[in-house]
Amino acid sequence: MLSLTSTLSVAALLLAILGTRLAAAQKNFNFVNKCGQTVWAGTQPNSGKPVLSNGGFTLGAGQSSTINAASDWAGRFWGRTGCSFDSSGQGSCLTGDCGNVLACNGAGGNPPATLVEITLGSKDFYDVSLVDGFNLPVRISPIGGSGDCRAADCVSNVNGVCPSQLQVTNNGQVVACQSACGKFNLAQYCCTGSNNTPSTCPPTSYSKVFKNACPNAYSYAYDDASSTFTCSGPSGYTITFCP
Question: How far apart are CA 3 and CA 40, in angstroms?
Fold first, then answer.
């Protein structure tokens, strides 16, 4: 028969093992704001996955914040700009707004917004997408891991080369760049209808603007070959606004 001391020691050991396994079953997302302005991060889970950090939080210029996710989480992150919220978290943003609230609580951001998309699993898949347009430069970098494990990013200020037809302005300043699909809603840009295959929806002059500025990012729906990244077993990821 085990003594009380022995029983407590076994229990402590089991708790330690359980704690280690739980920690291993989580991954960290470290958000860093290197912009010269406040960024309001947004988080949106895929269907059936939990909302992280209430769906949104504030990152002052130069600040960082870490949130945890289960090792099978999937969803997207983005940065909102030009926001103003009251003490109850009600307000609005110039770009990436998610329903006039600080805590998006599962809602997505209004295009145009630069997206970080990720699916965690035995092998993680992640990308930076301009399919919904651009508002901020961003990079996602794995922490450790094996395999390719390269950073995915869009580090250029696409607003500076945005075609006039796609520009979103505020007080004369370009604050975001719409996608051609978002602006014109035509099958040739949205890859829908008879244009719903890679062969019938090639790059356009508009998507090439995004691709030339950000070669590692999705520029339109079928831009998979050079825009999807993988990594096995990283402890987490660093997501940097304005890297």
Answer: 55
